[in-house]
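Q: My labmate handed me this sequence with no annotations at all. I'd like to see what the chain might look like in three dimensions before we decide whether it's worth expressing. Could you predict it?
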Amino acid sequence: MTFSISIYNIQLSSSLYYSSSSSSIFPTSYTKPKAKQRPLNPTSASLLDMDATSSPGLYPLHRCKTLHLVRHAQGIHNVAGEKNHDAYLSEEFFDAHLTPLGCEQVDNLRKHVQQTGLSKKIDVVIVSPLLRTMQTAVGVFGGEGYMDGIDVPPLMVAGAGESHRPAISSLNSPPFVAVELCRESMGVHPCDRRRSISEYRSLFPAIDFSLIESDEDILWEANTREKNEEIAVRGMKFLNWLWTRKEKEIAIVTHSAFLYHTLSAFGSDCHPSVKSEMCKHFANCELRSVVIVDRSMIGSDPATTNYPGKIPNGLDLPSDVADGKHSEEEVAK
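A: Here is what I predict for the chain of 333 residues:
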């Protein structure tokens, strides 16, 4: 499959734009050095003069999806690992939960998505099935506080993952779906090993775990760490899978290495500074919005805003077509 990605960094108020038939990413705020201005007219302008890294991309809207990428908030393993990298090898941080600071980060991002109106646009939330990502996802995109007596399951029960947080309602929130493809680098580090799905279901009753085949974590290996190239391939499979879904605005709550190595597959034909900007690691609880473009016809969603015209039917031959027909008739004589 072939597709393009356009990036908009919401949290940092900067934006990246990806376009081209292969892989080009550049910030819309990026200004190339000014070249000598030439008059734009049919005799002096040529498509051949356009630099591939500066030409815009144009795609049908119904072949695009908007993805809102979020790295989880601060986990206990982040704090310990920054002080001593060997902490990542400790079972103490198995399936790491959020820190109190991480919970504050979640609250602040929640305020942001509500103030910008983004929370009302999300069609579905895709989340990595690890404690820290699910805590982040439901905290940012979930409903308000859960009250007993409401005849719907909560997204998260009170105190899930040693968070001391109240239960979170699933009312007036998008559906949440757990997907293994967007997990963190797998293997060796206990913080990246998940619990059983049975246990997660008791903590996050309204998250849909039906796409996960094994109750136990059979993907994590104690002695083998997933390679960066393997993460990138998994990331591309994940992006391909998104085209099997009908939703257009998708929030994805995942991890640093997964985002970094997936996005690093793009931008190879753009300016080096843009490639560098594209491949920056995500901060805890950072949000970047991207547009993914289907250029291989893998998607089948029909256009909902296009209108066929000629209703009622009538003559409408464009002048440029008429000129072409006239020229052909003159040649035929």
